[in-house]
From TrEMBL:
The keyword Iron-sulfur does not apply. Its cofactor is Mn(2+); Mg(2+). Keywords: Hydrolase, Magnesium, Manganese, Metal-binding. Gene3D superfamilies: Nucleoside Triphosphate Pyrophosphohydrolase. This is CoA pyrophosphatase. NCBIfam families: PRK10707.1 (NF007980). Residues 45-175 form the Nudix hydrolase domain. GO terms for molecular function: coenzyme A diphosphatase activity; metal ion binding. InterPro entries: CoAse, Nudix_hydrolase, NUDIX_hydrolase-like_dom_sf, NUDIX_hydrolase_CS, NUDIX_hydrolase_dom. Belongs to the Nudix hydrolase family. It comes from the Bacteria.
Length: 205
């Protein structure tokens, strides 16, 4: 796993959050409710869950992956570990199972603190983000069939209202608007960027 990335340039930010502050804020249901909407699963959409892991370094980070280029969907895109919810599984169990399969995360290590609002993707998934806290160091082994890279994103960037950009593009003949977060080498957009935006709203002062 790569070292945490350097902080962005100074900006109009909420002061950096210590690990204890993060845990306290995410334990507050009213803060989680700040995040944008909560979409019920439309008919025919596949239920899935992702793990949103926050690493509690002195300067906390968020664990992200770049999907393998050989995958049949969302190849090469930045994502959280996750996948389909199997019959009889809770979203939490599915998120932990998928994280173990994709990045080798021991399912006993994450401390689950809550869910962000669900969202629907243009590819037919209803996604439930499950937020978890991790105390470093954490040993990870990416599955080469699913993950090209594991990297960490500085949580301080989420606290800067100027960080995400609102962009638009034409997909399937329709104009869609989406968030994009700054990064030196990766393009963080789409559903992953929306979940980061929801997390940012829950954490900001």
């Amino acid at each position: 796993m790569t070292d945490a990335l350097p902080a962005l340039r100074p900006g109009p930010v909420t002061p950096g959050l210590a690990p204890a502050d993060i845990e306290a804020r995410l334990a507050d249901p009213a803060r989680l409710a700040r995040a944008e909407g909560d979409v019920q699963p439309p008919a025919g959409h596949r239920r899935s869950a992702v793990l949103v892991p926050i690493l509690l370094h002195a300067a906390p980070t968020i664990l992200l992956t770049q999907r393998a280029a050989t995958l049949s969907s969302h190849a090469g895109q930045v994502a959280f570990p996750g996948g389909r919810i199997e019959p009889g599984e809770t979203p939490e169990a599915a998120a932990l199972r998928e994280a173990a399969e994709e990045v080798g995360l021991d399912p006993r290590l994450p401390r689950l603190v809550g869910r962000l609002p669900a969202l629907v993707t243009g590819t037919g998934f209803h996604v439930i983000p499950v937020v978890a806290l991790l105390d470093p160091p954490v040993a990870l082994t990416p599955s080469p069939d699913e993950v090209a890279e594991i990297f960490e994103y500085p949580l301080d960037r989420l606290l800067d209202p100027a960080s995400p950009e609102r962009r638009s593009g034409v997909f399937g003949g329709r104009t869609r608007h989406y968030w994009q977060w700054p990064h030196e080498t990766q393009t963080i957009w789409g559903a992953t960027a929306s979940m980061l935006h929801s997390l940012a709203l829950a954490l900001r002062g």
